[in-house]
Specification:
Blueprint: H1 2-46, H2 54-68, H3 76-84, H4 94-107, H5 115-127, H6 129-132, H7 140-156, H8 159-168, H9 177-196, H10 214-248, H11 254-270, H12 280-286, H13 295-308, H14 316-330, H15 338-354, H16 357-368, H17 373-386, H18 401-416
Helix pairs in contact: 1-4, 1-5, 1-7, 1-9, 2-4, 2-11, 3-7, 4-5, 5-7, 7-8, 7-9, 8-9, 8-16, 10-13, 10-14, 10-15, 10-17, 12-14, 13-14, 14-15, 15-16, 15-17, 16-17
């Protein structure tokens, strides 16, 4: 018994040490990213003419990835693929490539998010510890989970959701108790690292949460189905533009140039400045005043086009935008408080697009408080079921609960025929 303890204790201490290092490095990278992202956003706002340089920014991103970053161009999908079948350590250059690419996208007015950047930086940083600590190749799975957890938790200030997201986005595949525990520890280390750097996150609130009634339950279900459809539209739009640009423009560096030119003309002639960048001010406003009916659709279009043509960034904050503005617009017909509907949509569209209802429910509780918990959980669950089988990550194993429900329904219909 004593021999087993003396063997296990050093291993536990080693992993805890790795956990702390990943949390500190990933949290610091996210803190730096948040500060620089705010800076480039202010530069763009104060110099509206800079949007005309978006095609030039696209050329820089396209050339950089085509000639020097071919192995990391798959982004989050590379993390999922390496977790599923560990082969080669993720190059550390993934971190600076996605960081610079995302900052260029936001500086010149592309519509993108930030989660993809933080997750890729966290995953690339974490995977470097395999060689440093002489870990087995199969143990890279644990490192990748820790990197995803640290990146997500630190960029949004939601450690519980970050840890759960890292586990759930991988469909809990091949994950043991040690990995689950380390995922939570590294999430909190990364979260507190950002706090130490005194970098602030956006705060949202839902001041009014009505008690359950059969009528309100029915309306909440209807709204949640719409959130699921919005998630489906977002995922399919992004993949559609990616396929379209790949099909008609064979030289990859030209794709963001052409896409950037189209975006610039659309922004200039249609005066749609609020759909560029993260769109956080629009999200905040959606919690207080009804959004325009088509705001969520335009954000889907602009973000899908931006990412599909080759610009860099995440999808999650645009998903927040889509969900919050859709919920806000629905408040004109749905008899639920506007902030509650915006908050439900905020996390529910994210749930449907990433197939992570548990993590999204946790995020809703962290951001909005326990009072809205049942509404948040209902919205995330129903949006997940209503969003179809295609998510934003093409390499994700999406054979979860709804996959089996769809298969059972399909087989039953075929049998009846």
């Amino acid at each position: 018994m004593l021999e087993k303890v003396t063997t296990t204790l050093p291993i536990m201490l080693k992993w805890l040490f790795i956990c702390v290092l990943i949390g500190i490095f990933s949290g610091s990278a996210s803190a730096f990213f948040l500060v620089t992202l705010e800076w480039v956003t202010q530069v763009r706002i104060q110099n509206s003419w800079i949007i005309w340089l978006l095609p030039f920014g696209g050329l820089i991103i396209g050339l950089g990835y085509h000639y020097y970053g071919g192995t990391v161009v798959r982004g989050n999908n590379l993390l999922l693929e390496e977790y599923d079948n560990p082969k080669t350590v993720i190059p550390l250059k993934m971190a600076p490539f996605v960081l610079v690419g995302t900052l260029i996208t936001h500086l010149f007015g592309g519509s993108a998010g930030r989660e993809g950047t933080a997750v890729q930086m966290g995953g690339a940083i974490a995977d470097q510890f395999q060689a440093l600590f002489k870990l087995e190749n199969i143990e890279r799975r644990t490192l990748i989970v820790m990197g995803i957890s640290a990146g997500f938790a630190s960029i949004f200030g939601t450690p519980w959701a970050g840890a759960l997201f890292a586990i759930e986005v991988l469909y809990c595949s091949k994950i043991d108790f040690k990995t689950i525990l380390l995922s939570f520890i590294v999430a909190f280390v990364a979260y507190f690292t950002v706090e130490v750097w005194a970098v602030k996150h956006t705060h949202y609130s839902i001041p009014e949460v009505p008690s359950w009634t059969p009528t309100l339950l029915m309306w909440a279900v209807v709204a949640s189905i719409y959130f699921g459809f919005a998630a489906m539209a977002f995922s399919r739009t992004t993949h559609f533009w990616g396929r379209t640009f790949s099909k008609y423009i064979s030289y990859p560096p030209l794709r963001p140039v052409v896409g950037g030119l189209v975006l610039v003309l659309a922004i200039h002639f249609f005066n749609v400045q609020k759909f560029v960048g993260l769109g956080v001010p629009v999200i905040v406003e959606a919690f207080n005043n009804p959004s325009a009916n088509f705001d969520f659709l335009l954000k889907i279009l602009f973000t899908g086009f931006t990412l599909g043509c080759g610009f860099k960034g995440g999808e999650v904050t645009p998903l927040f935008f889509v969900g919050a503005t859709l919920g806000s617009a629905l408040s004109m017909v749905v008899p639920l408080p506007i902030a509650l509907l915006a908050g439900m949509g905020f996390v529910a569209v994210f749930s449907g697009a990433t197939h992570t209802p548990i993590a999204c429910t946790a995020m809703g509780l962290e951001l909005f408080g326990m009072e809205s918990g049942w509404y948040i959980a209902l919205a995330c669950g129903i949006a997940y079921l209503a969003s179809g089988s295609i998510g934003i990550y093409s390499s994700q194993n999406s054979k979860g609960v709804k996959y089996h429900l769809y298969e059972r329904f399909r087989k039953r219909n075929l049998k009846n025929l």
